[in-house]
Amino acid sequence: MTTAAAYAIDAPDGRFAKTTIERRELGPNDVLIDIKYAGICHSDIHTARDEWHGTAYPCVPGHEIAGIVAAVGSGVTKHKVGDRVGVGCMVDSCGECSSCLAGEESYCLRGATMTYNGRVPEEVQPGGVTFGGYSTQVVVTEHFVLSIPDGISLEQAAPLLCAGITLYSPLRHWNAGPGKQVAIVGMGGLGHVGVKIASALGAEVTVLSHSLSKEADGRRFGARRYYATSDKQTFRELRSRFDLILNTVSADLPINDYMRLLALDGTLVMLGLPDKPVAVQPFTLTGRRRSLAGSNIGGIAETQQMLDFCAEHHIGAEIEVISADRIDEAYERAIASDVRYRFVIDTATI
Fold first, then answer.
1. Is the dihedral of CA 131, 132, 136, 139 positive or negative?
2. pLDDT tens across 150-184, in order?
3. DSSP character for 59?
4. Alpha carbon of 48 to those of 61, 83, 116, 225, 348: distances in Å?
5. Measured torsion, CA atoms of residues 121, 124, 39, 310, in degrees rounded to the nearest 10
6. Distance CA 310, CA 150 (A)
7. Domains (ranges, CATH) in the chain?
8. Among positive and negative, which fits the CA dihedral 26, 32, 38, 43?
9. Looking at residues 271-276, what average pLDDT do you find?
10. Cα separation of 298 and 320, whole Å?
11. What are the pLDDT digits (tens) for 233-242?
């Protein structure tokens, strides 16, 4: 086994502290990555504080990883030492089920192995639980390592490994593009990337945000229109307007009001994870043949496609780079929406 420096949390109400973790020895199909940057995702906060239950401590979060290849196993062919690479939300899957064979590893029927807090055999990770990107190094199976094109800086690319693919996948799946009216609900870490990608795909993009405080940013990212959902007139004016609505927030929204904004055959896709069940009135669906759907991250091939697309269109996340000793502060600020728009840890400070 090898060791790496990391920042870990030991309890739901604990604070992050520097520690040393073990990583497995490099296998024939493995890639050793020197992590340069790690994005902070809101799901890191939920997991670190055991808000989704089942967190194993000590916990090292981080599934928005960007770095440089330090070593490769004897069987590795896709990556070489010195390559710019990334790792997203998962580090393995069964590779045999219908989902995996279709390139949809995130929907693995046996369950993909998550980058952190994933249960694995001891030989895969000492202790039987995966540790994430709030660390200096990680060992990952070659198939789950992505190439980061030169057109994106490593620090701006890191959040794309989660936020980017979370938005790119449904935009592609529901055919966002020229002639399509797309609404993005929320202008946070997910939403701002969605605006950029949807606009680059050629869709006409509208942001639906609680207030107009980020309107200038939204328009700069490519939104044609920007509406405050706190204004009841918004829901009257935009009724039956959109082909696709992507809900990036985890608040318990009045979902029927948003569903009525869909045009004939329109779809509202849930990306955020609200606490309460979503209740939809049947007539809201049948009146315009509307659909309510959900989407996870994408598969590995689609994630690489997303990175290549973002590089081609000069799309990166809007970030604030922090030192590792500010993780607790960043969590509090993220909860308060006091970031535009994603925190990224400079792992050189670990």
1. positive
2. 999 999 999 999 999 999 999 999 999 999 999 99
3. B
4. 7, 31, 10, 36, 22
5. -110
6. 11
7. 2-162+318-349 (3.90.180.10), 163-294 (3.40.50.720)
8. negative
9. 88
10. 25
11. 999 999 999 9
